[in-house]
């Protein structure tokens, strides 16, 4: 079954909605922000640019951290990006790329005993020799 291409809706920048001298955003609705996030694959800075505001203004206008709908949009796109990255990593593994093999063993293989341990150097301590001749003890330091 062929996947239907998402119809992209372009937003008109609302630069005139920024009050002069502040980062406050006026007139942006949750729906407008949601659409901008979807158009920009959940990337807040890109969505803000499309809306003609700063990313900081966008985050503070509708507190994204408290808005479940906007969080869900961002999370969905983050999951899609992770899926794509894992797919590319798997492709590189199948192609025998050494960097991919090392990455998987280093970060995913610890349950099977693959652990990267730093090599510890033994500090060089001075060796002290005590020579006794008569009543006098002489200390000489060697390497």
Can you walk through the features of this model?
Helix 1 crosses helix 2 and helix 2 packs across helix 3 (55-61). It is built from 5 helices and 2 strands, in the order H-H-H-H-H-E-E. The protein has a two-stranded antiparallel sheet. It is mainly α.
Task: Furnish the topology, listing elements before pairings.
Elements: H1 30-39, H2 44-51, H3 55-61, H4 68-94, H5 98-108, E1 127-133, E2 136-142
Antiparallel strand pairs: 1-2
Helix pairs in contact: 1-2, 1-4, 2-3, 4-5
Helix tally? 5
Estimate the mean pLDDT confidence.
78
Q: What sequence of helices (H) and strands (E) makes up the elements?
A: HHHHHEE
Specify the biggest β-sheet. Answer: 2 strands, antiparallel
Question: Which sequence of strands runs across the widest sheet?
Answer: 1-2
What structural class do you assign from the helix and strand content?
Answer: mainly alpha
Measure the end-to-end span: 76 Å
Q: Work out the radius of gyration.
A: 30 Å
- What's the overall geometry? elongated
């Amino acid at each position: 079954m062929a996947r239907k291409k998402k119809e992209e809706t372009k937003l008109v920048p609302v630069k005139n909605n920024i009050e002069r001298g502040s980062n406050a955003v006026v007139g942006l609705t949750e729906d407008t922000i949601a659409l901008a996030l979807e158009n920009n694959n959940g990337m807040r800075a890109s969505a803000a640019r499309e809306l003609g505001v700063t990313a900081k203004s966008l985050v503070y206008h509708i507190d994204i951290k408290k808005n479940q709908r906007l969080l869900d949009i961002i999370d969905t796109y983050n999951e899609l990006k992770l899926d794509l990255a894992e797919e590319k990593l798997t492709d590189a593994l199948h192609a025998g790329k050494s960097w991919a093999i090392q990455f998987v063993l280093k970060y995913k293989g610890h349950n099977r005993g693959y652990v990267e341990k730093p090599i510890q150097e033994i500090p060089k301590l001075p060796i002290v020799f005590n020579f006794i001749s008569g009543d006098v003890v002489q200390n000489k330091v060697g390497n």
